[in-house]
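job 3f2a | input accepted
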Amino acid sequence: MTLVKPMANNQQVSKSPAVSAALVALLLYVVVNAGLAVSRTRFGEPFASPYHGWSYWSVQAMHNADPARVNVVMLGSSLVVSAVSECEALFKNQALDLCFYRRSEYFDRQMQRFLNKPYETLNLATPGQIPSDAYLVLKTALANGINPGLVIYGIAPRDFIDHTLNNAGDTEPFHYLSRLVPVDECTDEIYSTPLSQFDLKLRQTVKLYGDSPDIISALQPFMRDFVHSADGDLFHRLNDQTFMQVPLAHFDKDSQNPNVFPGTAIAEVPSSTSRPFLDNTEDYKCRYKQPNDGNYQAQVRFLDKLIALCQANDVNIVIVNMPITKGNVQLLEPAWRERYFADVQRIVKLHNVPFLDQCQFEAYAPDDFCDTVHLNGFGGRKFLDLLVARLIKEPATNRLVVAAGDHGKRSVSTSRSGID
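job 3f2a | predicted structure (420 res):
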């Protein structure tokens, strides 16, 4: 007969060191966290980041821009990115790396042509950008001395209605930009779910968790040196790896990826004979499926906050409904389409802000699009031509673009730090 009890005792004894080690590690974690909280230690520079996403490159563009010359800022999702950048590649007849290129010289030239005033546009639109992201992008730009005379914000239903997005705090722009500018005034909109509220409390309470991006960024040089000394071949393979170039329209599906590598997001010179079309209907069926009413209302409030932020800083703003295909519009339930337009109209009327509906199906041909929502270079050029014509022609917008052309350097008290 085998005795079991002695084996159980042996197992209990063998577990004791592991339990003790876990308790010691937990105690050490608590002590280190408390010490950092009391000392208010800051890891690394505020603009440094272990991840180089779209927002990282946007902030770098802000730092490279001349605040005295920038008088127009563009905001919006990949619909704006694709229309403007593909047109720009066509206009300049060269491929453009969007990690670094954030101009719209074609738009500027057209504005100068008709109004005989200088314009310099900084395009801060990024794939997946929603109103809460646009709000933080502009707030960051203002904090870094970019104080334009005019903001052009391109919107579409997806920016407010996206079934695949849990809440405003889940986006890549929020994770990065909320480290650079305060977000206390909008915590109710951003942290709208119990889980997100718990995560906020955790990051506020546990400094090692809240500062984890800064800690990782600060440790990266040491990690690189360690890998280099341990395995030089591995170090060179990691640093020399090449990344696959992705069509701009595809970035809309992966806009929350924390890393965007130079050479992967390229606006190519479009061919007049070959205009491939990507059918992304299934993707948008998923996005428009069972919209989250709470998220929708939060984004409507952020549109209101964005306009209020502009007006508080003496910045004019024009809201532009972006062109998409009729097939894509029909994927969204009529009740939601009507609600979207009604809410946008209500907000712009409340603030007396111009709203230009550029989603005119008859103005665009099927081959102006590279998928059901993104314009290609030829469609982008048509969009900008029509936009410039309306901005100049309509009295409500003419005075705004003329004022932007007369916009001089504004005195903005700001501290501009470098970006690693």
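job 3f2a | Residues 5-39 form the longest helix (35 residues).
job 3f2a | closed
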